[in-house]
Amino acid sequence: MKKKKSNKDNSKTSTRNLVYAYLTIAALLVTATALVYWVNYQQLKPSVSYIQDEIERPVEPSLVCMVNDAFMGKPQIPVPVNGKTYYDCCEMCVDKLNNLESARIAIDPFSGNPVDKSEAYIVLMNPQGAVAYFESEANYNAFKKN
Question: What is the DSSP-derived secondary structure letter of residue 47?
Answer without folding.
Answer: P
